[in-house]
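In response to a reviewer's request, we include the raw inputs and outputs for one of the modeled complexes. The two entities were modeled together in a single run.
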Amino acid sequence: MDFAMTSEQRQRHDRLRSAIRHQLPGRRRTDPGDHFDRDDWGRTADLGLTGLCLPEEFGGGGLGALDTALCLEAFGQCCLDTGLAFGVAAHLLACAVPIRDFAGDEVRGQLLKGMADGSVIASNAITEDSAGSDSARLGMTAVRDGDHYVLDGEKSFASNAPLSDVIVTYAVTQPEAGFLGTSGFAVPRDLPGLSVSGPMEKMGLHGCPAGRITFDGVRVPARYLLGSEGQGRTIFQHSMGWERACLFAIYLGVMTHQLERCVAHVRSRKQFGRRLADFQAVSHKISVMSERLEGARLLLYRACWLTDQGTADAGAVSLAKVAVSEAAVANARDAVQVFGGIGYLASTGIEQQLRDAVPSTLFSGTTEIHRNVIARERGL
Amino acid sequence: MNTDAVTTRLLDFIRVEFLWSDEGREIDASTPLLEWGIIDSLRIALLQSFILNEWDVPVPAALIDAKNFKNASCIAAMICELDKETVR
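The model returned the following structure tokens for the whole complex.
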């Protein structure tokens, strides 16, 4: 057991943090209509962030889950636009990973290079108005018609959708097979019958635009089927395993930066003639924030390590996901309290971190769904 | 491992764990469990845990498909086949 980064990991981490600070957006996005553009995306691609875990033959970094997570942690720590980091991670983990592992050679060759170099932006579309946590009960259908599938239905909460070039989506192909009758597709955005609306107005993560996607008789060439018919659940679970293990590292980075700011603030600000740090009620709050962050970090690193070993189970990944997302909300709430009235002001970015943290307990499976998984792993 | 005995034990488990709030609903070895929604995305994991605990047979993700989980008879056949592969 070794809790230290290797020198290679340390160097990559330090190099990336420095590059992100210098080259990525140095401003927070507080307006719901203010999201990343292709220039922002291109700069993240120049740093290798859009292809971290894609094969090197396609211009990716060839990294495993743990190394990918370490890079995303640096992204969250050093980029003020958490929405951009989220959008890149969703593109990489919920879209590129299933294409990498389940698409045919032709489609992999067509899409992965562009996904790594930033010229192709991907959106993951599974949620429907009537299928949120119960994501297996999809209404969207895909009917085979010769060399094509005809897709009909509507998806919601699709991150990156308004700017996407390809959409990874899931539809029912065998209704009689219940939740095992779904299939995954990588759908080019420009096919007739496909329309995207948005961006939706959200509470946080403004840098990442989300939208609704309508498939109205979209004829998708059969080569864009991921895996085989009926493998949709397996593919989705596989991509969510990567997303739940790696994407939440962004929040570790955000919490690290947030804690550093809180410590600096309580050491410098004086009230009643004493530093805030000298009030035990304040110093204990910093201690509790540290406990949450470090505990969550260990669980996330472990989930990623297990993923790299090929032995990750749902319980380990769920533990990490819940620990990080709940810590992100609790620490963001405490940070506002530590900063007091200043933390309530949009200009400091402290309240923004709370609004960015809240959705983390909802996407990639709600806290409640993951606690069901954890309880089940305990034999309940 | 006897396929009929495995089927019977599976049906007992499904009746107790999945149909406890659905009294009067009869199922047998050929009941379409997926089509009727008796096995869903949450229950499949419970079923996997049960199979592992009862027969020490892990079900790999690649085998979780509509063919293997169509009904209790199909699930039992898969378990027996996996058990044979383990013994070899």
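As requested, we also summarize the result in words. Chain B has a mean pLDDT of 89. Residues 3-18 of chain B form the longest helix (16 residues).
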